[in-house]
Write a structure and sequence with these properties.
Blueprint lengths: L8 H4 L20 H19 L8 H17 L2 E6 L6 E6 L8 E7 L19 E5 L5 E4 L14 E3 L7 H17 L6 E7 L9 H7 L1 H4 L3 E4 L19
Parallel strand pairs: 3-7, 3-8
Antiparallel strand pairs: 1-2, 2-7, 4-5, 4-6
Length: 245
């Protein structure tokens, strides 16, 4: 089912794709796979919290809760945020506070709404209560304690099941985790970063064109990167989310 299949992408995709891997910060610490895993594990609880927010694009009150959560999360990472009016379905704009003179500007597009869901069709307590699962000897998915993600070794065959876990809240958490890991290593993007978080992608982004037109100056950039969830079993490969550090 779309939106409920990714776990290890949060680990294997978060930093390897930013161009920061191997770079040294002011304290000499590199952005290594070990640092990525440590940072991701520190953020899994935050990921659970984000997944717990229903995000059906047709429910304006739920979309607003998601937008408010995202503004808080991005501000914590040093972004300035603001909602862009979209007839009661706010689109969130975020811009990294560190401006690099003469550098290119990249706009990242990510959506935070999800498809409608029928809870009874989910083999777990709730599609909003993320469940960590592994395959048993019979090849069936069985739940295990999700707190195992927070420390110790992580099995790359585990999967986290929740509405929008991959499409598209997973990429949002990867993006935030990348900034956390870069900060831990003392490095920063070598480009200027803008982010557009869409609230109606699952409804064909019906208001996006008007929002972009009304905010052309704000969104002006040299390139755009579209982050979206996988439609296949996750594998570790270079992601479409790329930042040079």
């Amino acid at each position: 089912m779309k939106g409920r299949r990714t776990l290890i992408a949060l680990l294997c995709g978060s930093l390897a794709v930013w161009g920061a891997q191997g770079a040294l910060g002011a304290d000499g610490q590199a952005v290594t796979p070990a640092l990525v895993q440590k940072t991701a594990q520190a953020n899994f609880q935050e990921f659970f919290d984000m997944l717990a927010l229903p995000n059906d694009a047709i429910v304006a009150a739920d979309i607003q809760k998601n937008a408010d959560w995202l503004e808080t999360a991005f501000r914590k990472r040093g972004f300035t945020t603001r909602p862009l009016e979209n007839h009661g379905k706010p689109i969130v704009y975020a811009e990294f506070d560190r401006h690099v003179a003469g550098a290119k500007t990249v706009l990242f597009y990510i959506h935070f709404d999800g498809q409608p869901v029928i809870p009874a069709q989910w083999a777990q307590k709730s599609p909003w209560d993320a469940a960590l699962k592994r395959r048993n000897a019979a090849g069936q998915w069985e739940a295990i304690d999700r707190n195992r993600l927070l420390s110790g070794e992580i099995d790359p065959e585990w999967r986290l099941f929740a509405r929008s876990a991959s499409d598209d809240k997973g990429p949002i958490m990867m993006f935030l985790t990348a900034f956390d890991a870069m900060k831990a290593a003392g490095v920063a993007p070598a480009i200027n970063v803008k982010v557009l978080l869409d609230s109606e992608e699952e409804k064909e982004s019906i208001g996006l064109g008007a929002v972009v037109e009304a905010n052309r100056g704000l969104l002006k950039s040299d390139a755009i990167v579209i982050n979206d969830g996988p439609m296949h079993e996750p594998i570790c490969r270079p992601s479409r989310s790329a930042i040079a550090a």
